[in-house]
TrEMBL record:
Protein's UniProt name: Exodeoxyribonuclease III
Keyword Transmembrane helix listed: no
Co-factor: note: Probably binds two magnesium or manganese ions per subunit.
Family: Belongs to the DNA repair enzymes AP/ExoA family.
Cofactor dependency: Mg(2+); Mn(2+)
Active site: 106, 147, 250
Domain spans labelled Endonuclease/exonuclease/phosphatase: 4-250
Residues binding Mg(2+), per UniProt: 7, 34, 147, 149, 249-250
Catalytic EC class: hydrolase
EC number per UniProt: 3.1.11.2
Length: 259
């Protein structure tokens, strides 16, 4: 089973690229972030024609998340995190797909920092960690995946330049500490488990020739509960997708699990 996370950066603007990727890579489950469309204007018909059922939590022009499942309809469990610090933002959706629980995450960016946006980022991360602990008690295989907006380490394995990102909310000690708290609670960083060394970038900015210079960083993560991690076979990044015309600034990041 192949499960992918993909910040699409506007599903209507990138719909041809999304449909192309679904056809080429055939993920069984695809979690999308920054769909940037309302519930009413989500392209459900096009997604269905591609062979996928979908559930989504939209927001006009901003944020928005969706879960797609090949050949079946995801069974929605919730929209939004419990005790979300700002429920007007569409940043989380959760579904049952077969025996899996799948949570799709678009964690706040937090810039500029310090300030209220950074405070919101950390508060939202706290709520996510609390909810992850609740999911843990189900003992079901669970994947919490998406755009975490956290570069986990200062290594060039995770960022092209720690110096260039030094004042960014993605690299702050508080952001990294929250990510470590999730890892230390027993959630497995799937991509780093399969590829412990070397750059594994998932994002390249549109500015300053970042793609052409390979000036990227790793902010898209698939975090696995123990029963999901036991089934982990492979992981990777569909980097070539980022190089296509009118591409998202993120590349799809994926895992395969033993059925």
């Amino acid at each position: 089973m192949k499960i992918a996370t993909f910040n699409i950066n506007g599903i209507k603007a990138r719909l041809p690229r999304l449909l192309e990727w679904l056809e080429e890579k055939q993920p069984d489950i695809a979690c999308l972030q920054e769909i940037k469309t309302s519930d009413e204007t989500f392209p459900a018909a096009e997604i269905e024609a591609a062979g996928y059922g979908a559930t989504w939590h939209g927001q006009k022009g901003f944020n928005g998340v969706a879960i797609l499942a090949k050949g079946q309809q995801p069974i929605e469990r919730m929209k939004g995190l419990p005790d979300d610090p700002d429920p007007t933002h569409s940043r989380y959706i959760e579904a049952d797909i077969g025996d899996l629980i799948v949570g799709c995450i678009y964690l706040p960016n937090g810039n500029p920092q310090p300030g209220p946006k950074f405070d919101y980022k950390l508060a939202w991360f706290d709520r996510l960690i609390d909810h992850a602990a609740t999911l843990w008690t189900t003992e079901r295989p669970t994947i919490l995946c998406g755009d975490y907006n956290v570069i986990p380490t200062s290594s060039t394995d995770d960022t092209f330049s720690e110096r260039a990102m030094a004042t960014d909310a993605l690299t702050q000690p508080e952001s990294r500490a929250a990510f470590r708290r999730l890892c230390n609670a027993g959630w497995t960083d799937a991509l780093r488990t399969i590829h412990p060394h070397g750059p594994a970038y998932t994002f390249w900015d549109y500015q300053a020739g970042a793609w052409q210079r390979d000036a990227g960083f790793r902010i898209d993560h698939l975090m696995l509960s123990p029963t999901a991690a036991d089934r982990l076979l492979d992981a990777g990044v569909d980097k070539d997708t980022r190089g296509k015309e009118k591409a998202s600034d993120h590349a799809p990041t994926w895992i395969t699990l033993r059925d």
